[in-house]
């Protein structure tokens, strides 16, 4: 089977998928509330004869299972797309920009909602890829699993699908290989991956530090938790600069500090929300240990009346691409995308719960669990605009990144590249 010929023959007209993308972008759903994306994906897969569609897995998660019709021993391949949006007010000015607000089921607060990370593009690409692979099923053997995962942004979706019995109660065929991708602020039409570490682990938690409240005119009779929190925030900036090997990557962010209600009352407590990104287990342990040491010491130094309260909020695993699987995918991508493919791509700055769908696969012999996986990126920025900003040294200022209120992939050639990558990746393993 010649993959370029297959794609030229079976790739659908992408105009309808562009319209689908715009609809999803205009009507996003927060984590745990991805109803439109899930309904759209299920309806589309159900319209393709032969797809066995199973819904409501770990929330709005779903899978579609398709058997190849060609004789042979093709593998079982799982392709994953995430579906949730973010609590961000969109500022792109696009005609299909989101103006949606909805109450977040996690905290009951109404928030603006935007697909600021490109998951709407992931859904559209996956549905077009599913259509392509369905149309060409007579030319490959094996089993294809199309999986749409909710709640990636809060690191809960993959865990929820596993906990709900993805591979047991819902009888998803056990994959031999798990594949996934993410649109990034790189030139559209480019694709990249690499062997080994490809996305950081992320640990998020809330820390409440305690003081003794009172009147702002009598600070000597209080213990000010705002001062404690301020010292913690400043001191935490030394963890990476002074305790992490400069050759290692790590980020410590205090994304939120909350204390008190008005200016003339010293509060009795302050809340810090902290996020940590690391790329090796050793650095992860060192950084988390340093944070706990610093928080404890600053509380003691200020005479805090009780120990700080630690509350984990989310945890993303390391994304470490399997060597043999990534070499296999890289070979196929290099052949298809030519010089638009980078086999030593820059790793993601963010984190993913994607690996859980592979590491929690039960072994077919019932002994142990875990199968190989490969994750890659594809670009979503107009190539001419990207190059112009790069030449002027303005990439940081003029090319919006994921989670920005201005993040909006150029629809083409982003979508076509994302579809091609999924199809090429899958077909490189399906028997032919």
Automatic annotation (TrEMBL):
CDD domains xrefs: M20_Acy1-like
Cofactor(s) the protein requires to work: Mn(2+)
Protein family per UniProt: Belongs to the peptidase M20A family.
InterPro entries noted in UniProt: Amidohydrolase, Bact_exopeptidase_dim_dom, Peptidase_M20, Peptidase_M20_dimer
Protein source organism: Phialocephala subalpina
MF-aspect GO terms: hydrolase activity; metal ion binding
Residues holding Mn(2+): 117, 119, 153, 182
Name of protein: Probable hippurate hydrolase
Cofactor binding description: The Mn(2+) ion enhances activity.
The UniProt record lists the keyword Chloroplast: no
Alphabetic keyword roster: Hydrolase, Manganese, Metal-binding
Peptidase M20 dimerisation domain: residues covered: 204-300
């Amino acid at each position: 089977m010649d993959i370029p010929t297959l794609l030229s023959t079976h790739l659908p007209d992408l105009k309808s998928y562009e319209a689908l993308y715009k609809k999803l972008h205009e009507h996003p759903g927060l984590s745990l509330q991805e109803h439109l994306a899930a309904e759209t994906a299920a309806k589309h897969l159900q319209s393709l004869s032969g797809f066995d569609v199973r819904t409501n897995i770990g929330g709005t998660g779903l899978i579609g299972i398709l058997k190849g019709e060609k004789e042979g021993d093709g593998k079982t391949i799982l392709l994953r797309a995430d579906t949730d949006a973010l609590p961000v007010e969109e500022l792109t000015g696009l005609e299909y920009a989101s103006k949606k607000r909805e109450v977040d089921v996690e905290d009951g607060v109404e928030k603006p909602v935007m697909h600021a990370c490109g998951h709407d593009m992931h859904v559209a690409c996956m549905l077009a890829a599913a259509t392509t692979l369905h149309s060409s099923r007579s030319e490959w053997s094996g089993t294809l699993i199309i999986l749409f995962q909710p709640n990636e942004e809060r690191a809960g979706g993959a865990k929820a699908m596993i906990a709900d019995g993805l591979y047991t109660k819902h009888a998803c065929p056990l994959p031999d290989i798990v594949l996934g991708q993410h649109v990034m602020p790189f030139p559209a039409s480019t694709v990249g991956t690499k062997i080994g570490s490809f996305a950081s682990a992320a640990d998020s938690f809330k820390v409440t530090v305690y003081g003794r409240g009172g009147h702002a005119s009598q600070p000597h009779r209080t213990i000010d938790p705002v001062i404690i929190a301020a010292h913690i925030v400043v001191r935490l900036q030394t963890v990476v600069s002074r305790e992490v090997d400069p050759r290692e990557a790590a980020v410590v962010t205090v994304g939120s500090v909350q204390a008190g209600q008005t200016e003339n009352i010293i509060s009795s407590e302050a809340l810090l929300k902290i996020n940590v990104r690391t790329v090796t287990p050793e650095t992860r342990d060192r950084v988390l240990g340093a944070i706990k040491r610093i928080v404890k010491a600053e509380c003691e130094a200020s005479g805090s009346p009780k120990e700080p309260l630690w509350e984990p909020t989310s945890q993303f695993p390391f994304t470490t691409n399997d060597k043999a699987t990534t070499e296999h995918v890289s070979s196929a991508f290099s052949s298809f995308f030519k010089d638009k493919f980078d086999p030593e791509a820059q790793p993601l700055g963010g984190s993913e719960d994607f690996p859980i769908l592979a590491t929690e696969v039960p072994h077919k012999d019932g002994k142990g669990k875990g199968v190989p996986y490969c994750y890659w990126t594809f670009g979503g920025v107009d190539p001419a605009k990207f190059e112009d900003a790069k030449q002027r040294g303005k990439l940081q200022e003029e090319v919006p990144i994921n989670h920005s209120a201005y993040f909006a992939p150029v629809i083409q050639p982003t979508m076509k590249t994302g579809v091609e990558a999924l199809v090429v990746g899958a077909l490189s393993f399906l028997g032919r």
